[in-house]
Amino acid sequence: MDISQIIDPLNKAQRQAVCSEAQNTLVLAGAGSGKTRVLVHRIAWLVQVENVSPYSIMAVTFTNKAAGEMRFRIENLLKTPTRNMWVGTFHGLAHRLLRAHWKDARLVENFQIIDSDDQLRLIKRIMKEIGIDDKKHPPREVQWFINECKDNGLRVAQLNPREFHNREFMLDVYHQYEELCQRTGMVDFAELLLRAHELWLHQPHILQHYQQRFSHILVDEFQDTNTIQYAWLKVLSGNNLPTTHMNTFVVGDDDQSIYGWRGAKIEHIREFSHDFKAGTSETVRLEQNYRSTGNILEAANSVIANNSERLGKVLWTDDSEGELLQIYKAFNEIDEAAYVCGQIEKWIENGGKRSDVAILYRSNAQSQPHEYELVKRGVPYRVYGGLRFYDRAEIKDALAYMRLIANRQDDAALERIINTPTRGIGQRTLDIIRQAAKEKQQNLWQTTLELVADKTLSARAATSVQKFIDLIEELSIDATGSLQGNSSEDSLTLAEQVTHIVEVSLLKEFHGKENSERSQAKVENLDELVNAAKRFDDEGDPLLDAMIEAKDEASDSANNEAEQPANPMAEFLAHAALEAGEGQADEWEDCVQLMSLHSAKGLEFELVFLSGLEQGLFPHKNALQDYVGGRLEEERRLCYVGITRARQQLHMTHAESRTIYGRNELSYPSQFLSEIPASLVSQVRAVQNAVSHSKPSSTSFGADEDEDVYIGQSVNHKKFGEGVVVDLEGSGARARVQVSFDNYGTRWLMLNIANLVT
Known about the structure:
Blueprint: H1 3-7, H2 12-18, E1 24-29, H3 35-48, E2 57-61, H4 64-78, E3 86-89, H5 90-100, E4 112-113, H6 116-129, H7 139-151, H8 169-184, E5 186-187, H9 189-202, H10 204-213, E6 216-219, H11 227-237, E7 247-252, H12 267-275, E8 281-286, H13 294-304, E9 325-330, H14 333-349, E10 357-361, H15 367-377, E11 381-383, H16 393-406, H17 411-417, H18 427-440, H19 444-453, H20 459-479, H21 494-504, H22 507-512, H23 517-539, H24 546-554, H25 568-582, E12 592-596, H26 597-600, E13 605-610, H27 621-624, H28 630-643, E14 646-655, E15 657-660, E16 663-666, H29 671-674, E17 681-684, E18 691-695, E19 705-709, E20 714-717, E21 721-729, E22 736-741, E23 745-750, H30 751-754
């Protein structure tokens, strides 16, 4: 290969990194600066120019996708297969090492890797055997504890029992879990790295062999290394020895370190030059961005500059300044989603591809209003790296309670929740109920009643099943007066019913027990289900026929069916089922991408929407309560990642009020918005989306003269009182207006009969 093929495609800083002669090189690679290209070309430089054997190079990254991309590019550049090269993930290379030295690692030859679900099942089994109440101590919390210990290089013998107070049982579970895995030849993901690290430490002849074999270690996404990964690299590189011939080349970005909650330590990239100090060292900054416009990059630079202890870099581009960033101040989350989807429709109308558009959010629960609006407008979409709102397990659990309350013959709902949360009803009991139902040719609910009554079940099982029956009956009586057609003022609204079900069933407590991001996300999703119920209560199904809606709005009787559906819970369940039934767009289909900001790292889109930029939401409330400030700085890095996903256009949205657990609460703009210079942004209000209507006089809207109704306009309705217009759709006789009333929530009204007064 000609040397020009290696260095000609590179800019000055990239060449400096690729051709570095330092023994230890840190490449600070800004977003969109070509870090993967630098890694691949560095390997090509070593092989083609410095005559380094490709088999003496170890290249490490974090995901299988990234490792595959690296291997693909190396093969294309070197025109040689990478099968025998050590290129892969930390876990993949640790597994390769342990397979080669299973006996020295104290493993059986055919040891098996278990995934997270299998690990959790083992932990549940151990907890049951030693009498630990999994209702009081969630197994997932114990699983998180064990994995965290391993990620920090700690065996149970290294832990001090005095530091655990009333949680000594965790040490016991960890100890028995280790013994069980050792006895049965099982290895979890965290164990792969810990066992490989211990192999270096306990078998110096093996460590020496690999230190002689590898002359170069290259690491991608270095800012994401956890304690055990960093220690693994330090020991292998020999930087703890007086002399070492090993060369380390690490690429990362301290400004994109966003996985602290997963164990990543940002201090590793900051301390690299100190910890890897054998021989010469060099730091190279890749600051030229090949992705975004100038205005987007300047905004990102301005935000991240507010973090302290940065290694420092400033992104720039040869591209044009581009469009200003659009900051939209919505009235609420409904208006926010309507604005986002309206802009997407304009993008599509102008010839843009849906797959070039991404809606990003801090919390997965924020996807629901956007999904609702996209379904309403018929825009295909996919939730990247996750499930659609109504497909999430905790949401399905809550809906299953509602389904069984509404219809005792729903066997699928009963099977899902009879032991969720866990209440001592095991698989054996459920099998007995199923078999009896099959023999009697009846539904599971009726069968449970009969089995408890005739004492067929064991006393313990019968007690647990009876408690479940009592719970469903209690929820039905307490929460569903309207289910039986009761429209009295004392009956609960749909949102209140959902709130009651989520609380009394203990679903919220069950999913919120673990001290983890995942647990918090589930609780937020359940809160969002309440919000979705409130919106449905206020608006109904957006896909109903407009003429039927007009007729219902015209009715002003005491029992107006348009205002209070005969069976709101059943209608909401049907709506949820239809939305879930839509299914995500196929992978090959041109569709809008929805994803959390954490999932967006490494991706890029022409048009990006950052939604929910409000204090307490983004930055997250937990970060605002961290007085040290580390979590707030990670939130700011997350904002930086979000901004730099956009290539051409970036819209950032926030709402004046947001529904939190069924209640409208005032919200305040994120501090990150104030960190963007005013010269880079355009403040947007949706006054341009007016619809034509007519009015009989100068004070009310009717049918003769044309006038514009616009979002943000204050109006008055003879029954609902004062409110603000938050959305508009249709034209002529089919024009509808959505108004957020002070005392009646948000309602859709037919414009030509609503008689709104300005």
